[in-house]
Design brief:
This protein is α+β, with helices and mostly antiparallel strands. The chain has a single domain, classed as 3-Layer(aba) Sandwich (Beta-lactamase). 30% of the residues lie in helices and 19% in strands. A hairpin with a 4-residue loop joins strand 1 and strand 2. Helix 5 crosses helix 6.
Length: 335
Amino acid sequence: MSTAFRLTALVTAAGILAASLAGCSVSASTRPRDARGAGASRRGPDHGTGKATPKQASQPAFKTLAVTSTPARIAAKAGALAEADTSRLLWSRQMYTERPIGSIAKVMTALVVLRTANLNRLVRIPRAVLGYVAKYQAESAGLHPGDLLTVRDLLEAMLVPSGCDAAYVLATTFGPGIPAFVAKMNAAARQLGMMHTHFTSPDGLPYPTEYSTYSTPADLLTLGLAAMKSPVIRSIVAQRFVQVKKGKGHHAYWWDNTNALIGGYRGADGIKTGYTDAALHCLLFEAVRDGVTLIGVVLGSPATGPDAAAQAAARLLNWGFGLKLAPGDPATARG
């Protein structure tokens, strides 16, 4: 079902946070583990059920955008596609249903870090990071304990190859400690108006349960709009890969982007993948063509392959770019 809306209030909130941040070969494994975790608890109440919750009554009203087509073969359990510059919603499914989001949570971690961190600050990688990755069977950027890396290096290690080890180091450094950092993430979500989002980890790892960290397509559009207003985040997530040459105090690193759209879909410039056993394949994405910027999210794409979410996102983008999007006028499909 296609719907339309204006996210003016949300974009304004996103812009406020983003303004404070402004100063400051694609590879994917066949067994995606952005933030996997094994043996976690079963679904908690109201999360990931695909059903509306009582909270949804507080959401703003939406208007239907008249279109002559709908996107085909979108198997994601929830998602949305919007025109970023006009904040007009083009398509949505389960817009306010709270679902696990996997490593998309790392986008909020990056926003929180950029509020106060100096990108050139050196951070020493603690030995404890190895135990953290092993405990949760988490995706790793292969950080070496004892290495000195800059904050920017760590942001790249977190956002490009989806390193949970990098998220752990950033959270323990700038919380300080994970509980304090997660509290900052949840406070930032409230400031952006993301009232149906909750974080329990800096990386989307499924603890204490698979459904403890969650969000909605509506909230994730808000997060994506805020993140892509940050020049730092925007420059990082558009990279197909990152190479850190061996230097004084650190090893050499090579990180491939887990987002298969980057380098594989014309105009794609961000932003973040997500996967857990419960979340399935998720992707918060953006692409620009012919002066039109589309931003979207898919949650819960079936695990048909490591790039399942990217394939769904590409179909959504193809459909969206095939619309004539004149602000204030009904959109019609090109013939």
